[in-house]
Design goal:
Blueprint (H helix, E strand, L loop, with lengths): L1 H5 L3 H23 L3 H21 L12 E2 L2 E2 L8 E5 L1 E4 L2 E4 L2 E5 L2 E2 L6 E4 L2 E4 H13 L3 E9 L5 E6 L6 H7 L4 E2 L8 H10 L11 H9 L1
Parallel strand pairs: 6-11
Antiparallel strand pairs: 1-2, 3-10, 4-5, 5-6, 7-12, 8-9, 10-11
Helix pairs in contact: 5-6
Pfam families: SNase (PF00565)
Protein name: TNase-like domain-containing protein
Keywords: Membrane, Transmembrane, Transmembrane helix
């Protein structure tokens, strides 16, 4: 090969020598180049070192995932721990409002606003009376509630306590202006029995259970 190159034209001879040098340099680089797994390992190690340094320096902080919110309560929050304090309004005897949102009181059923009852032989608006009784229990309207569920109307089902720590649902039943809603809960049967025995509120006269009155009104 050397003999043949000496007989070549000078330009071609120089080009071949340059190509040989490039090939030799490439072979040397290939020998010195580390394997792929070593290169990846080094890159990962450097990345981990950078993260550790950034963490120690306070430059990197974990980003908390943004929870999806359903009716004002983050999804996945255990119901008994989904607590909040708010100033509420009274919609009716068993429903409160926070802005445009409705809160349905757990375990009780109060007369509907259009529902008539009878007392001393005369009809009266027992829905209005139940609403007024709930407003009296709330006072300034500040309550602390725990969400227990969400109903078919997308209202939060809540158990709430007033500023004195009273369970407002239990108190309304005790005063006789709501019934224990045993279809869903038996929590307030004792308060209902007390109100009936003392003939307080609704028990002073005649009335239909709210669930029966609603059923007839739909027909």
């Amino acid at each position: 090969m050397i003999f043949r190159r000496r007989r070549l034209p000078p330009d071609l001879h120089d080009a071949l020598r340059a190509a040989d040098r490039r090939d030799a340099w490439q072979r040397l680089r290939d020998r010195l180049r580390p394997p792929w797994w070593l290169r990846w390992g080094a890159a990962l190690g450097l990345a981990g070192l950078a993260v550790a340094i950034g963490w120690q320096a306070g430059l990197i902080r974990p980003v908390a995932p943004i929870p999806r919110v359903v009716h004002g309560i983050p999804e996945g929050t255990p119901a008994p721990l989904a607590r909040f304090t708010a100033r509420v309004g009274v919609v009716d005897g068993d429903t409160l409002s926070v802005g445009h949102e409705r809160l349905r009181i757990h375990g009780i059923d109060a007369p509907e606003m259009a529902q008539p009852c009878e007392r001393a032989g005369r009809p009266y608006a027992c829905g209005d009376a139940a609403r007024d009784a709930m407003a009296g229990i709330l006072g300034r309207g500040v309550v602390t509630c725990a969400q227990l569920d969400t109903d078919q109307y997308r209202r939060r089902i809540v158990r709430c306590h007033d500023e004195a720590g009273r369970d407002i649902g239990a108190e309304l039943v005790r005063q006789g202006w709501a019934l224990a809603f045993t279809r869903f809960s038996t929590d307030y049967l004792r308060q209902e029995a007390e109100a009936r025995a003392a003939r307080r509120g609704l028990w002073e006269g005649r009335f239909d259970p709210p669930w029966d009155w609603r059923a007839r009104s739909r027909n």
